Amino acid sequence: MAYTEERPARRRTDRSPWNWLLVIPIVIPLLVPVFNRTDPTLFGFPFFYWGQLAFIALGVLTTTVVYQMTKRDPDA
To answer: One digit per residue, pLDDT tens: the chain, 76 residues?
Structure first.
C-alpha cells in the first residue's frame, strides 16, 4: 500500500484592502446633510431625488471596482 501525504488545506482569505472601498456607498447615503437639500435641480427634479439615483450608481461603480481588483486568476 502506497503512502500518500496529504497537503494541509490552504486557508482562504478574502481580506483585501480593496474591500474597504465598499464602506463608501454605505456611509455616504447615511450622511443626511449630503442630500437634505433641493438645489441643484436636474430636469426639474430636486437634488434629493436624483441624488438617490446617484447613490445607486456610486454603489454599482464601487462594487465593480472592488470585484475587478479582487477577483482571482483561475489559472493561479
So the answer is: 666 677 666 666 678 899 999 999 999 999 999 888 888 999 999 998 999 999 999 999 999 999 999 987 666 5
Helices within the chain (DSSP H only): 24-27, 32-35, 47-70
| Whole-structure pTM value | 0.72
Spatial distance between the Cα atoms of 49 and 39, rounded to a whole number of angstroms: 11
Place of cell 471596482: 65
Give the bridge partners for 45, in sequence order.
42
